[in-house]
Amino acid sequence: MTETIKVAVLGAAGRMGATVCRAVDDADGLELVARLDAGDTVDASSLAGADVAVDFTVPAATEANVHAALDAGAHVVVGTTGWDDASRGRVTEHLERVNAGREDGLGVLIAPNFGLSAVLAMTFAAKAARYFESAEVIELHHPDKVDAPSGTARHTAAAIARARAEAGLQAMPDATESGVEARGADVDGVRVHAVRLRGLVAHEEILFGNVGEQLVIRQDSFDRASFMPGVLLAVREVVSRPGLTVGLENVLDLS
């Protein structure tokens, strides 16, 4: 698509949504045509002819928003977390239905994190996972975040687990017999710990350990503006990627 891409932002009154609106307004080749927030209906009329709807709402609303945007004929970029295999599967099925017979299929891109440093950290973690006996993830966010662990941490842990499984590694050593709840969430066999602290924005540490050595990969996002290059990249890419794409790493050249 070489013409101007028309963009609607869902969750436009929120911190991330407002930042996305400013970024789209300032970007070449993009036009902000609609700002929607809680209480607004998502349909062809409210989306105002948008080519791409960008969703930064809340986990309870995001899946319904995606289905509504697809029904209105818009591609969708999703930054809201709270997705699981079942909800992603429903979106895949919906895409198959709406794209049947279309030459220019609609696309949905769900990214647990749009920060380039976060995407690189997740990619490096997946590459390192096969070489270490132990791995754990710590995610740190502001206390206004409603879900835990974060989508980024779940995505990271799942990638670590896949890499370990492909390498034929056994379960990680852990002799804990009491106080198991203090060990954090179990994401595909990888422990994930969530910190909520005033003053933080979005941060992640991935810890790997072997006998006598440790590798720590840390990523810090100090300002929501750091997510905007990734959001704008996703908006430009989703229009040429029919179907469901999960993870910004899939539109970056990280080979």
Explain this structure.
Helix 3 runs parallel beside helix 4 (85-99) and helix 5 packs parallel to helix 6. Strand 7 (185-187) and strand 8 form a beta hairpin. With 255 residues, the chain is α/β, with parallel strands linked by helices. The chain has 2 domains: 5-110 and 225-251, NAD(P)-binding Rossmann-like Domain (Rossmann fold), CATH 3.40.50.720; 116-222, 2-Layer Sandwich (Dihydrodipicolinate Reductase, domain 2), CATH 3.30.360. It has a 6-stranded parallel beta sheet with strand order 2-1-3-4-5-11, sandwiched between helices. It has a 5-stranded mixed beta sheet with strand order 7-8-6-9-10. It is built from 7 helices and 11 strands. The longest helix has 16 residues, at 151-166.
Summarize the helices and strands and which ones pair or pack.
Elements lengths: L4 E6 L4 H12 L3 E7 L7 H4 L4 E4 L3 H13 L3 E4 L6 H15 L7 E4 L5 H13 L5 E8 L9 H16 L18 E3 L2 E7 L5 E9 L2 E9 L6 H11 L4 E4 L9
Parallel strand pairs: 1-2, 1-3, 3-4, 4-5, 5-11, 6-8
Antiparallel strand pairs: 6-9, 7-8, 9-10
Helix pairs in contact: 3-4, 5-6
Keyphrases for this structure?
Rossmann fold; Dihydrodipicolinate Reductase, domain 2; 5-stranded mixed beta sheet; alpha/beta; 2 domains; 11 strands; 33% helix; 255 residues
Short account of what is shown:
With 255 residues, the chain is α/β, with parallel strands linked by helices. The chain has 2 domains: 133 residues, Rossmann fold; 107 residues, Dihydrodipicolinate Reductase, domain 2. Helices cover 33% and strands 25% of the residues.
